[in-house]
Design goal:
Largest sheet: 5 strands, mixed, barrel
CATH architecture of one domain: 3-Layer(aba) Sandwich
EC number: 3.1.11.6
Family: Belongs to the XseA family.
Order of helices and strands: HEEEHEEHEHEHEHHEHEHHEEE
Organism: Hymenobacter persicinus
Number of helices: 10
Protein name: Exodeoxyribonuclease 7 large subunit
Number of strands: 13
CATH topology of one domain: Rossmann fold
GO molecular function: exodeoxyribonuclease VII activity; nucleic acid binding
Shape: flat
Strand content: 15-25%
């Protein structure tokens, strides 16, 4: 048989020829023969079901994908995976025995201890044939998981939180989480309808078995949480079932949600011997839906009996108090009648005395008022004369004061007018004197030429006979030479005008 690998040539020796190539089929046959020789026995392995294909018909096989993963000390995650097969005849023996002893069917995520045999096929590769399954390992694993769940709930205080919530004395507004077609729900409703009390039942449908059950119940709890102000309690019920059906009620998330729910939760999930984890976190855990209905009806019955006893006791006490009150009222009536008679006699005596006093009082008052009127009739004329004399003296004094004040004001105003008159005369003389001085200082120089006047925008006066403007008389005809036109006019009147000119102010004297 040629070697399965190429060897290096030894030093000093000529190199050997390369080995002849093998067909793939022959190589895989050698691998199968080696594995059958090396792993001829069967082995117990622990693995988790990562994928599962159950038989769809009688005679079909069960195919699994087994995986093994754990965390090392350094935190690395190791993973191994292999295909496995449970042949049809062996599956028909192993599956019912496993379900009977563990209470559940084979499912993804389940951890198993299997006895397998290594098989290799040239076309399908490496696989494991499952020979048997140890159900005791799975039962212990489920118990360990359940114990871990209970410990987590206890560490967070969720096992006792629901029990500390107060349950209503007569819970009648109920939120039911159940499957609407479940027989347990129908029995629960029937039992409540047979009781003499009126219950307001609101159903929140949910899946009560299978892997989807925890998520469905949690969704129903979220809907109830939004309406908790109108509810008294939450009831989780379902009919009987196998151990596999009850595994969903051991879910940690569902149990924690029930333990932290703000309303009391009562469970009746239809088991007689086993206890689910949600029963530990619920406010009250009962065995069956019928037991829950009986508990609610019995609670109202006891409350009704208590209220009936209270009513009888209240009636007895009220009767006693009424009799005592009637006796006391009769005594008060007699006392009030006697007291009214005494007060009436006393008021009559007081009224007679007041009438006598009232008759004497007005007469004394009238005499006193007459005496006062007589005194006032003598005193009023004297007081009027005194007031008149006082006012006349005051008026004379005011007249003299006004006369003196008017004389002072008149003298003061006359002196002011004289001062103003003197100042005006003095200012007029000063102005006249200044005007005379300016007239004396005027120079008899000639005015500018008419063309110059016209150039500067002034009007030029022309006469027909060449006379001067000062010789003109009323009725003479003249012409007014303007910068842009000539106008004919007639002198109607003359008036002498003195125009003072200065050398600095006139533009014509400077040319």
């Amino acid at each position: 048989m040629p070697p399965l690998f190429n060897r290096r040539p030894e030093p000093g020796l000529p190199g050997s020829l390369p080995p002849a190539p093998l067909p793939l089929a022959e190589l895989l046959v050698r691998v199968r023969q080696t594995l059958e020789t090396r792993f001829a026995d069967s082995y117990w392995v622990v693995a988790e079901i990562a994928d599962l294909t159950l038989p769809r018909f009688d005679g079909a096989h069960c195919y699994l994908v087994l995986t093994d993963q754990h965390v090392t000390g350094r935190g690395a995650q190791l993973k191994a995976q292999a295909r496995a097969t449970i042949w049809s005849q062996r599956y028909q023996q192993l599956a019912p025995a496993f379900a009977e002893q563990t209470g559940q069917e084979l499912s993804v995520g389940l951890k198993l201890m299997l006895r397998v045999q290594v098989k290799f096929h040239e076309q399908y590769g490496l696989s494991l044939d499952v020979l048997t399954i140890d159900p005791t390992y799975t039962v212990g694993e489920l118990a360990r998981q359940r114990l871990d769940t209970i410990r987590k709930l206890e560490a967070k205080g969720l096992l006792e939180r629901q029990k500390a919530l107060p349950l209503a004395l007569g819970p009648q507004r109920l939120a039911i989480i159940s499957s609407p077609m479940a027989a347990g729900f129908q029995d629960f409703v029937q039992h409540l309808s047979e009781s003499p009390y009126d219950f307001a039942v609101t159903l929140f449908p949910a899946t009560m078995q299978g892997t989807d059950s925890p998520a469905s119940i949690l969704a129903a709890l979220d809907l109830i949480r939004a309406r908790r102000a109108t509810l008294d309690a939450v009831i989780i019920i379902r009919g009987g079932g196998s151990k596999t059906d009850l595994l969903a009620f051991d879910d940690y998330g569902l149990a924690a949600a029930i333990g932290a729910f703000p309303l009391p939760v009562i469970t009746g999930i239809g088991h007689e011997r086993d206890e689910a984890v949600i029963d530990l976190t619920a406010h009250i855990a009962l065995k069956t839906p019928t037991a829950v209905a009986a508990f609610l009806a019995e609670r109202l019955t006891r409350l009704d009996a208590v209220f009936g006893g209270y009513a009888e006791r209240i009636q007895q006490v009220a009767t006693q108090h009424l009799a005592q009150a009637q006796t006391y009222l009769a005594k008060l009536t007699r006392y009030a009648h006697q007291a009214a008679q005494d007060q009436l006699e006393q008021h009559r005596a007081d009224l007679a005395q007041q009438l006598r006093a009232a008759a004497a009082g007005p007469r004394r008052l009238v005499r006193e008022q007459r005496r006062q009127l007589a005194r006032y009739s003598h005193a009023l004329p004297r007081a009027a004369r005194r007031n008149l004399a006082t006012h006349q003296a005051g008026l004379r004094t005011l007249g003299r004061q006004l006369t003196q004040r008017f004389r002072r004001l008149h003298r003061r105003r006359r002196e002011q007018l004289l001062r103003h008159h003197y100042h005006l005369q003095l200012a007029a003389e000063r102005l006249l004197h200044r005007a005379r001085l300016r007239l004396l200082e005027l120079d008899a120089r000639a005015l500018p030429e008419p063309a110059t006047l016209a150039r500067h925008g002034y009007v030029q006066l022309l006469t027909t006979d060449g006379r001067a403007a000062a010789a003109l008389r009323p009725g003479d005809a003249v012409q007014l030479l303007l910068p842009a036109a000539t106008l004919r006019a007639q002198v109607t009147a003359t008036q002498p005008v003195v125009v003072p000119f200065s050398d600095s102010a006139s533009p014509f004297l400077s040319e």
